[in-house]
Structure formats: structure tokens, C-alpha cells
Amino acid sequence: MEKYLNAPIKEIITKFPEVGRILEEYKIGCVPCTLGSCLLKDIVAIHNLPVDQEAQLMYRVEKSIYPDRDIKKPEGKASARKTPSGKIKYSPPIKRLVDEHALIKKWLELIPAVLEKVDIESKIGRQLILDGLDFIRSYADKFHHAKEEDVLFGYTDKNLDIIKTILADHETARGHVKAMLEALGKGDEKTVFEHLNAYKELLTEHIKKEDEILYPWIDRGLSTAQVGELFAKFDEAEVKIDKEVVERCRRFAEKAEQRIEKIKKEVTK
Ligand SMILES: [Fe+2]
Ligand SMILES: [Fe+2]
Prior knowledge:
The protein is mainly alpha-helical. The protein has helices at 2-5, 9-15, 17-25, 40-47, 51-65, 92-117, 123-150, 161-185, 189-221, 224-239, 243-268. The longest helix is centred in the C-terminal third of the chain and has 33 residues, at 189-221.
């Protein structure tokens, strides 16, 4: 089993698809993950399951890999984890990042309506897309992702596969933005919308992964002194960013829905 504990999860799931199904039962989303390079042992540690559930999970995984092996079944019910009922409690600096996610999600949730109703040929539609891209670049990337990359991940081992996965998501997101700007310059609405939709899908999953798995895991490893230090470092990082730009982005996310409504009315006139 040692061999598989140290193997990338995608390799294990490809060889033993049942393992993917078991992980999904425990709300561990490795099957849809695009990279799948995390090691099985890290995945189990990061998800912080209650001891009895972890024992059940490992028993079932080992049984699917070695069905003929005589493995001692752990005590207790083989119940899979339910979605966590209580709210996750974050330390103050991590809570700041979760609140930033909430603003980013405001825009992400509006993207389906943009794809349906906005015409990039129209002045009002094109401006909305441009402002949305400004929000993604200035707020989601420069303001938020930069704090994760330059400060937060310094409290982890950047060689860990989960961090590599998160960094790869940031790069993919930047690729979508670049492609959108190019396509917008050519008036190619189809490509703009394809990348906008892909960005929405990627960031929605990414934020969920951070809020529910990565941040709580990092939080568990921080000492009280480190929590204070992290808070101060976030302050320092934010000083470098123009306050006006952050305010502009905040206003954009708050008002975007009204702007889309207005566009909808113009279309139905
Ligand atoms: Fe991130
Ligand atoms: Fe984030």
C-alpha cells in the first residue's frame, strides 16, 4: 500500500476507477481535477477527515486496490462524509481572502447572464466586458491572487502538489484573460465568450477548493504568532495597490447586475 500512498492520484484512479468513486463519496474532488498530481497520502492528510472516517476510507481504498488481501476492517459505520454542516471558522487574515472570494463570486455568478444577453458589438456590451476584464485582472489577479502567491503560500511548501495545482489554476486563468483581450480586439465574440465561460468554470471550482480545503488546511498549521504576522503582511501587500483601483473594482462587482439588467431591457425593446 505504501507504493500507492506515494503515487499521484490520477494514476491510481486511472488504474482503479473505484478509488475515484470512493473519494467522491467522501466529497474529495480528485476525479474532476485537471492535474491530479497530488499524492494519495497528502490528499488524505489535507482533507482532515474524522479519525473513524479516514480509517474507513483507507480501508475501502486498499480493498479496491487489493481485493484479495486480508485487511482488518475498522470499527464503526462505513458512512461517507456529509457536506460540512457548520460554517468553517477562519483566522482573521484568511477570512479576508474568503471575503474577497465573495466579491469575485458576485461577478462569476453573473457570467451566464452576460453570455446570454450581451452583444460585444454594442458600446454598452463591449464596455461591460472590458470592465469585467479589468475586475478580473486588477482585483481577482493583482489584488487577490498576488496576496496568495507572494504572502500566503510562503507559509506552505510550494513544492506540494496541492499548491502547484492552485498556482496552475492562476496561470490558466491568466491565459483565459489574455485570450479574451485578443479576441475582443478582433471582435470575435464566440472566442471571448468561450474563454469567459471557461474562466467562470475554473474560478468557481478554484474558490471552492480554497475555501473548503486549502485555507482550512493552511489555517490549521498556523501558530497564533503567524496569524498576526500574516495579517500584517496582507496590510503591507495592500499598501502597494492603488486604493482607488480596488474601490473601482468593488463598485463594478456591486453594480454589474444592474448593468446587465439594463442591457437586457435594451435587447427586448
Ligand atoms: Fe487562488
Ligand atoms: Fe483565492
